Amino acid sequence: TEVDKYEEGSDESGSEEEVEGVAQSESESKEDPVKVLARRMTEALASKRNARRLFKDVITEAKRLQQPNIVVFALSSTVRFTLEQYSHEKCLSIQGWKEALAAFQECKAIIQSSRLYVLETVAEFSPAVTQETSEKAKEVFAIDFTKINTTVVVGGIRGLYESLFEEVRRMLINNEKQYVQCLEAECRIVEIGYELLEKAENRKSRIPTLLFSALSQRTPAMHAILCKRFNLSTPFDITGLYQMAKPDSLTMLQYAYHLALIGHYRQAKNLLVSDYSATKLLKQDEDWNGNRFLELKDNVSISIKIAYNRVIVQLAIAYFKDGNVAESAELLSGLREHANKWSILFGQGLPFNSFNLPKDLRARSTMLFNSIQIPPHCHVPQVSVELMYFVAISMKRALETSQGMQSFERDTFAALRRNVNDVAGEASTSNEYILAFDDSLQSGDVPKMVNALNSLPIWAVLDGDASKAKIIQKAKAIALQCFIYSSAANFTSITSKYLQERFDMSEAEVRKTVNHTILTSPEHLTAYWENESEQSICVERCNVAGLRKTLGQAARNTSAIQVPTL
Q1: Torsion of CA 42, 44, 45, 50, to 10 degrees
Q2: Tens digit of pLDDT for each residue in 44-85?
Q3: N or C: which end of the chain has fewer CB within 10 A?
Q4: For residue 261, which of 225, 308, 218 has the smallest C-alpha distance?
């Protein structure tokens, strides 16, 4: 019938449409899936908002197709894009950095497990939507991804590691709310750096220099605490990293800082004045006598000046911890003149008020100085160092005054007495303890002197009880010397037992201090042990310098007398 014919015709037309759809799907399925993924990656690189989502889809599809070379490329692009996406901000969030690190770790693991050959490295790439970006993407995808054993790491493994490392430093400076997590991120990235150093080619890159810049700011004890806190087993080979790092002035100063930090101040001092790179950094001074350091040249960079100032302060702290207060006071005397610029001198703050700058200049200036600032856990404590400086010059001044010498620190202490609030902010109580220590040191009041030292908030910076015991012992020795000088006109002899009881010192310590006084002060004091048992010391005040001056004046006056002729 006609109805049957119509139904047969409709079936034939429907079957034709189905055939055409099947043919089209078959043509799409015949398209190379690698080219499809390459096109998707081009779209991801040219996209500004959806790049991370597109890369995630590419990675999922490439894993399904078992294309590790494309997975590596997409993962490395994800790391690079994540880091560059926040380049205009102060720093990346800790969550964003962890995502970038996870992608980097996965990328590195796939390369090692699949034994992929890195064919080419794209050093720099901007994710901005421009025609130039599209052209660059086309050049990148001109590589034959059908060769499953070859891949492209955008930025390179070493380049991506360096970017992740530098981003951690920025987070440590700008992310105060999540500082512990940022510190953990630094420890993680340092451990990964040691893993990369297992390959010989990575030892000639910037990786040893970056690791050295981070670890040189730590002591072995601090490194052990951090590793235990974050469950890590990172080595601490400062000498090995220094030998592999780039031999420039900044690296040399960082090594000198580390030597002073662990107490090897003599090696740090020798390195600073004898290293080959020091000739390019420091001014030459023919009259240098070993008691002061050479000055910096005028054309050195800001980062080198900051590193140099940190070395000087750490050397002063190391000298002070060992009881060498004279050297400590001399090193800190130059920096004391710039106390109002402390944060600038040591890279602990911006040298300008960023709120007074235009918005575009504010961001660029902040990013520039963020790269040379020091993380807060490596800051030099200004209050403690200034109090330490006043303790050192108090000991030095007391000894010079008792010897009849002119003390150049007299004006500094006079200013402290006039205005005790200018030295350390809220530490007015600490300044009162400084003045009490100065008075008791010259009067020989040992209990008051020890109480003043124990009350100062400086011992946490100076490693606690060991340094405190040395400084207290040094203060007692100086108080004993001052007493011998001031008592020379009042006593003919002083027994050793009396000195032991008054200054709370052992017999050996008293003898050592008295012998040092006899040997080092022949012009100001005539002193000797009364008998072989050395139970009492005979003292006699003398002033050879004053006698020499008097005789000189007398000789000049005598030569001016004219003898009349007969």
Answers
A1: 160
A2: 777 766 777 888 888 888 888 888 888 888 898 888 888 876
A3: C
A4: 218
